[in-house]
TrEMBL record, chain A:
<dbReference type="InterPro" id="IPR013324">
    <property type="entry name" value="RNA_pol_sigma_r3/r4-like"/>
</dbReference>
<dbReference type="Pfam" id="PF04542">
    <property type="entry name" value="Sigma70_r2"/>
</dbReference>
<keyword id="KW-0804">Transcription</keyword>
<dbReference type="InterPro" id="IPR013325">
    <property type="entry name" value="RNA_pol_sigma_r2"/>
</dbReference>
<keyword id="KW-0805">Transcription regulation</keyword>
<dbReference type="GO" id="GO:0006352">
    <property type="term" value="P:DNA-templated transcription initiation"/>
</dbReference>
<keyword id="KW-0731">Sigma factor</keyword>
<protein>
    <submittedName>
        <fullName>RNA polymerase sigma-70 factor (ECF subfamily)</fullName>
    </submittedName>
</protein>
<feature type="domain" description="RNA polymerase sigma factor 70 region 4 type 2">
    <location>
        <begin position="125"/>
        <end position="177"/>
    </location>
</feature>
Automatic annotation (TrEMBL), chain B:
<feature type="domain" description="ChrR-like cupin">
    <location>
        <begin position="106"/>
        <end position="198"/>
    </location>
</feature>
<dbReference type="InterPro" id="IPR025979">
    <property type="entry name" value="ChrR-like_cupin_dom"/>
</dbReference>
<dbReference type="InterPro" id="IPR014710">
    <property type="entry name" value="RmlC-like_jellyroll"/>
</dbReference>
<dbReference type="InterPro" id="IPR012807">
    <property type="entry name" value="Anti-sigma_ChrR"/>
</dbReference>
<dbReference type="InterPro" id="IPR011051">
    <property type="entry name" value="RmlC_Cupin_sf"/>
</dbReference>
<dbReference type="InterPro" id="IPR041916">
    <property type="entry name" value="Anti_sigma_zinc_sf"/>
</dbReference>
<dbReference type="Pfam" id="PF12973">
    <property type="entry name" value="Cupin_7"/>
</dbReference>
<protein>
    <submittedName>
        <fullName>ChrR-like anti-ECFsigma factor</fullName>
    </submittedName>
</protein>
Length: 182, 218
């Protein structure tokens, strides 16, 4: 594995080790990176520090418990953890559920395709760089939407972010998955 | 399995669902449509990837409590192992999983209430900032002519309906705003079952439905 791959897929490797070996060292590395970000995300969404700490711990415990559901061909680890944190936020702050689509899972023998996994992780990082490169007012508006500060009527999906590539790659992954299911 | 779907969700709705900003009632329609539509599933995942980027950039100046990792490992040790065996699927279900969750079963378990003319409804339990209901409309039957005070999402699960916007079959979703006045008619064939969410009461134009409105709760 060259150095570039090490950066792009190190979190994927951590989740795989948690899934396969219940590896606490891998979990500690994920925790050190993501737990403070989840806590910060929840505080920006309106939780106080104590509630954000409690929820961040629960989110990270869910990461451990649901490691087998993570699909690196369709999401980065940051994206997957974001969805868990978002659902916890809606439950804790709005006392509502976040209805989730039916799970689509690969067959039991499926091994994630390494090239597809790497490409998806790299595209997720590019999306992050594109977000940082946006004019500040635009970036702040997107962040406010994801911190839950905007109502659905205030949200405009015209983000200025290049979403076409990542969407097409996920669409192809879904087609391969459907073929494997039949 | 997916069927060819013509009428999809808007980007605004998908981003609002990805960011967790939609009322639960609308979220249920979005999740149910996405269960049937891989195109919208991929678009939704794109907007969730934006959430991943926002999380990655969230202020790292925030620190976790000192014993946080140990406390989390204790939480994990106390959790029951996740059952990895999925509940048995009904054969060829009419309702995708998220909807079965709210109904407590497939189409044959719905507790319908008659609205007259063979039309039936069942309001599903969600948070009150918007409402979502199942509607059963016999083939060939028209829904009362109505406009909207707010937004209405209508997803077809069985049969089809037609209105000024075209024909809507299984998996198709109609996104109606305040400006749309429409008279959906259930198409010939199997009776039509729809999942419809609104964030304001519908406004009926005919006298009779308007009188009936407070009673039927539509």
């Amino acid at each position: 594995m060259n150095e570039r791959q090490a950066t792009d897929t190190r979190w994927v490797t951590c989740v795989t080790r948690i899934r396969d070996e219940r590896d606490q060292t891998a979990f500690a590395r994920l925790f050190a990176h993501f737990a403070p970000r989840v806590k910060a995300f929840l505080m920006k969404s309106g939780a106080d520090a104590a509630l954000a700490e409690e929820c961040a711990q629960e989110v990270m415990a869910t990461v451990w418990r649901k490691a087998h559901l993570f699909d690196p061909e369709r999401a980065s680890v940051a994206t997957w953890i974001f969805t868990i944190a978002r659902n916890r936020r809606i439950d804790a702050l709005r006392k509502q559920r976040h209805p989730e689509p039916e799970d689509l899972t690969w067959g039991p023998e499926h091994e994630p395709d390494q090239a597809e996994t790497l490409a998806l992780q790299q595209e997720s990082e590019q999306l992050g760089r594109a977000l940082q490169a946006l004019p500040e007012a635009q970036r702040v508006l997107i962040e406010r939407a994801y911190f839950g500060e905007l109502s659905h009527r205030e949200i405009a999906a015209e983000t200025g972010l290049p979403l076409g590539t990542i969407k097409s790659r996920i669409r192809l992954a879904l087609e391969r998955l459907r073929q494997e299911m039949t | 399995m997916t069927t060819p779907i013509i009428h999809h969700l808007t980007d605004d709705l998908l981003m609002a669902h990805a960011s967790g900003s939609l009322p639960e009632a609308f979220g249920l329609v979005v999740a149910t449509h996405v269960s049937l539509c891989d195109e919208c599933r991929a678009r939704l995942a794109g907007y969730e990837a934006v959430g991943g980027a926002v999380l990655e950039d969230a202020d790292p100046g925030v620190a976790m409590a000192e014993d946080s990792l140990a406390a989390t490992l204790r939480l994990i040790a106390d959790m029951p192992e996740e059952a990895r065996i999925a509940a048995p699927e009904p054969a060829a279900p009419v309702f995708p999983m998220p909807l079965r969750d709210y109904v407590g079963g497939d189409a044959d378990t719905v507790q319908w209430r008659a609205l007259g003319g063979g039309v039936r409804q069942a309001v599903l339990p969600t948070a009150r900032d918007a409402t979502v209901r199942l509607l059963y409309i016999p083939a060939g039957m028209a829904m009362p002519d109505h406009g909207h005070g707010g937004m209405e999402l209508t997803l077809v699960l069985q049969g089809a309906f037609e209105d000024a916007g075209g024909r809507y079959g299984r998996g198709d979703v109609e996104v109606a705003g305040e400006d749309l006045d429409h008279t959906p008619v259930a198409a010939p064939g199997p009776d039509c079952i729809c999942l419809a969410a609104t964030d304001a009461p519908l406004k009926f134009h005919g006298l009779l439905p308007r009188l009936a409105q407070p009673f039927i709760g539509i």
